[in-house]
Amino acid sequence: MSKKVLVTGCAGFIGYHFCINMLKEEGSTVYGVDNLNNAYSPLLKKERIDNLKGNDSFSFLNLNLSDINSLNSLKKDFDVVLHLAARAGVRQSFLNPEIYVRDNTLATANISNFVNKNSIKKLVIASTSSIYGDSGVNKVSEDKDELGSPPSVYAATKIAGENIAKTILEDSNTILSIPRFFTVYGPWGRPDMSILRFIHWIQSGKAVRLYGDGKQRRAFTYIDDVIAALEKFTNQDIHGTFNIGSDSINTLNEVINLIEKKLDRVANIEYLDRAYRDIDVVIPDLDKTKKQLSWEPLTSLSEGISKTVEWCEEKIDLLNKIDYLYEGEKNPNEN
Length: 335
Known about the structure:
UDP-galactose 4-epimerase, domain 1; Rossmann fold; globular; 11 helices; eight-stranded parallel β-sheet; 16 strands; two-stranded parallel sheet; 2 domains
């Protein structure tokens, strides 16, 4: 069945993969929006957009969604809107809170208002596991374990966006779906996240910056599994908030070991102080997602790391041009 889909954040990691997948559906038309900001290397975003522009069923608009007037240039008759645009990064969010409020909370309010005014059937808003904070030994559940005082500016802006969207659309007929992603990784990933950084640093023989002892645990979730979930939200009428994450919890040290084995190299680890407000572990409760969405993660960490390393080797020339450090952790003349 043909669809007309609006994807915000189409030059981002998840947005790009979703667009690629959606364009495989016969008759589907994808309108992508992104402001191509410098939250991380614009070079990677440009490469993604250039790939998408090769498809006749894709159209791109460079828009700043925090400016309500920018939405006037959009078409009004979309079947579904996927709001994947956001400024991510827990540590970075403490450096410039205003930008995070603008790009996350305000932009989400504007998109929700756009959907409401134009009576669009479905809105999918990407959210984050960061709003749960540290779960300890317990699994975190939707509509139960959200923190009243979020652990970071980033998390605070995302939960605010969720709540604003729910309020705006409460009396509408729009189906609002909110997937909360847990540490997504894979080809075309973000260079400010651990896995792509670790691969690049080990591959190039550079020191691997490890904040803390590496025993922090995450539900590392492969991008293909995330796109499978988003496809279900797009094609089914599913209202509510859902955890989208791996049911296998692994340490950063385990990630490094898998990369070492795949590359047949030994990491030169530089141990640094634990990052500000870095959590020990967050474990998703997937019961609701498995029952209502009929989704579960299929890709093991070993398989996902292997595929990501292979992609990095294929794209080594591009990836060697990218900056892997954000402003708050840079020293002069350092990449």
